[in-house]
Amino acid sequence: MADIEAYLDDFGKVVVSVSRRYYSGKTGNFYLSDSNGEVYTCLVRGHEDRQDSVMYELSIPADLSFGISYELHEKYGKIVPLQIRYIVHTKYFDELFTYTGNDLGATYHPGYTDFVLWAPTAVSVVLCVSLRKKKTYQEMRRTDCGVYRARIAGDLKYATYTYLINRNGVIVKSADPYALSSTANGKESAVIDLDEIRKIRDLPASKVLSDPVDAVIYEANVRDLTSNPLTGTMYNGKYLSLTESDTAYADLPTGLDYLSSLGITHLQLMPVGDYATVDELNPERGYNWGYDPVSWLVPEGSYSTDPDDPYSRMRELRKMVSTLHGRGIRVVFDVVFNHVYDTEGNPLELTVPYYYYRYSDNWYRSNGSYCGNDIESRKPMTKKLFRKVISTWMELYGADGFRFDLMGILDVDTVNELYALAKSIKPDALMYGEGWNMPTALPHEDKAMIENMGKMPGIGHFNDVFRDVLKGQTSDDGKYFTGYLTGNTAMAFDACSALAGHCRHNPYFWRFDDPEKSINAIETHDNLTVWDKMHFCCKEEPRDIRQLRQKMLIACTMFAQGIPFLHAGVEFCASKEEESNSYCAGDAINRMDWERLKLNQKVYEYTKKCIALRRSEPLFRLRSAQDIEMKTRFSVNDGVIIYDLETMDHACKVIINATYEQKYYEYGDLFKIQFDEEGNAHSEFIYDVTVKPHTVVVLKKEKWDEKNHS
Ligand code: CA
Predict the structure, then answer these.
(1) Which residue from 100, 129, 404, 513 has the fewest beta carbons nearer than 10 Å?
(2) How far apart are the CA of 275 and the centre of ligand 1, in A?
(3) Which CATH number belongs to the domain containing residue 102 in this structure?
(4) Which pLDDT value is given to residue 411?
């Protein structure tokens, strides 16, 4: 800390911190001077003795102007810049400076390019444009709402740029927070001629999803899907690898064909927004999932074939999504709005210090994300940037939905606004996230979390109770604990609540007022894989029983009410060698293991049948909590769950036998087996059924059958 620091924290209020090293912190006679030569005398309103410093609170007679610099003087002759600090969190600041135009960033025209930057606390901004190795500097003009502008003549299609921003007494170099692309590792922002991107084949319009519960979501990482050399793609680990057809290993499809083979409706990509910790020029030297955001608008460069060409990542991402659409697979983008990787060096903090982060009442930087900062989602200009991100991912890259990382850091209103925006672009857009209660500096009632699900119609939440009840606890400490399907049949009643998507009331455990709010996942990218967890919680059991348990977990995910979600590899019992947090564990641990697919081919075939049955059977996709209340019935018999579903024309009976005994049931009605322990349908009518240990059987009764056979 410098000897003296001075901050503008509110209108008419300056806070000065004087180090004890400097005259024991005892000083006075404060006045401010501005760059026009005006002088303002400050009154000391009070002071507070701290261990290493004395804090003075000063009042200033007039409101200061923005866009010019001020210096604080004190009686021993020190002169320091006045830094603009917490005043940016006042309502009046928002009223003065919230910008409603839609031209932030660089807008390309063949004859000129406009550069527009929101930097209200800056006193000057210089635009630095690089074109064909030549740099030019242009002072920008300050206009309304603290927006700086410059128009550069000429064709800047291949130009890159940065801003030199003079604020708080220092000049910093920053990328553009509204840049659509950049050179490798986000070094320079890029001017983009959008016509170049739109040249890529139009994104085919996919059929509208009639309800979110019709979705079958599959989560994967771009790199992991094809980084295994056995994939047989040309562009392993790149966006373009998912545009390649006819790849296989050991007679089983890989890559794009593999995704197509599953029958999923949505592929959820782990972050494809620019992240920090993989060197884009040497991606093989590093590995990261990408939850360390640099820019929410720029596609990650390490997945592109030419990270230094700003157009390459954009074209290739668009082409990838377009190809997936062509296969009938919609794409959900995982966005990490809750924090940024580099707290001090991110363009947001560089352009408008203190504005984008959340602070507690005592001005501690909120850190509910445990990553050093929480984004203040409630600020109008933060929301504006979020809206730009949502609309760009959807309109330029074809996104069909969003998953919010640590959604509980964001606020209810913002999430609702973003959902309304997404739906205005695509009526069936999905939006869901991790609705955990994070220790962020937001009032409880404002957090976009499960407990506030009633305030967020249409927003999904990962259902951690579903996961823990069926699979057993997920945390490292809980890995030895079993759930209903991993050996604890005493949890059968809890499992019934979970299968109802926690949408049924008494005596069921109720969490959600609509099934579209329950994202049912037994495995996600976090924590041990199901298979690895069973190394601990089912370690005495032979492999074939664990395989049966894996199948039951997948079947119950598919037949439960709510939105089913599978993490890539769960369908072939993927292992990460017991690594519970593999975000930087490298390709070998994280990538798709096609040999393992071959080894557990049966589970993969079974998963496809589960997905197909879900997609063909509307009773597993009930649209409302009321429907679930009326059309489902659960009973528990000796550790076995009987899950009955009934509508006007047919009924289904799902028998989940998680016990070690074979069970036999006789019924007064005629059924067909619609789904046996291998997922196959039978054509003969039966009155009784035998259910093997650790299997799920689905029986179906057409109501007209009664008439025909009686
Ligand atoms: Ca990057």
Answers:
(1) 100
(2) 4
(3) 2.60.40.10
(4) 98
The 10s digit of each residue's pLDDT in 606-637 is 999 999 999 999 999 999 999 999 999 999 99
- Helix and strand counts by DSSP (H, E) for the chain: 17, 33
Given the residues 405, 494, 514, 523, the one annotated as active site: 405
Residue 703's pLDDT band, with cuts at 50, 70 and 90, is confident
Average pLDDT over the chain, rounded to whole?
A: 96
The whole-angstrom separation of Cα 91 and Cα 95 is: 6
CA distances (Å), 151 to each of 145, 241, 246, 623, in order?
18, 39, 48, 52
Burial 29-61 (b: 16+ CB within 10 A, else e): ebebbeeeeeebebeeeebeeeeebbebbbebe
* Å from CA of 317 to ligand 1 middle: 14
Same domain? For 120 and 70 the reply is no
CA 325 / ligand 1 centre spacing (Å) = 25
d(CA 611, CA 609): 5
Residue 710: the pLDDT is 45
Residue at which a domain ends, from 63, 84, 105: 84
Provide the edge-to-edge strand list for the sheet that holds 650-657.
632-637, 640-646, 650-657, 695-702, 663-675, 685-691
Do 51 and 24 have their domain in common? yes
Q: What is the CATH number of the domain that holds 633?
A: 2.60.40.1180
Q: Is 214 a catalytic residue?
A: no
CATH of the domain at 22: 2.60.40.2320
Residue 654, pLDDT > 90, answer yes
Tens-place pLDDT, residues 492-537: 999 999 999 999 998 999 999 999 999 999 999 999 999 999 999 9
Asked, for residue 676, whether it belongs to a domain, the answer is yes
431 found inside a domain: no
Contact 263/612 with Cβ under 8 angstroms?
yes
Output the CA 300–ligand 1 centroid distance in Å: 5
pLDDT digits (tens, 9 = 90+) for 385-444: 999 999 999 999 999 999 999 999 999 999 999 999 999 999 999 999 999 999 999 999
Report the alpha-carbon distance of residue 562 to residue 560 in Å, rounded.
6
The answer to whether residue 479 is domain-embedded is: no
Out of 188, 434, 514, 617, which one is annotated catalytic?
434
Residues of the chain with pLDDT > 70, as a percent, come to: 98
Q: Which range is least confidently modeled, 30-39, 112-121, 690-699?
A: 30-39
Domain final position from 51, 84, 117: 84
Strands 4-10, 79-84: pairing kind: parallel
* 185 alpha carbon – ligand 1 mean position (Å): 5
Q: Any catalytic annotation for residue 434?
A: yes
Domain that holds residue 43: 4-84
Cα(661) to ligand 1 centroid in Å equals 53
DSSP 341: S
Overall number of domains in the chain: 3
Q: Determine the average pLDDT of the residues in 577-591.
A: 97
Rounded distance from Cα 305 to ligand 1 centre (Å): 13
Residue 377 resides in a domain: no
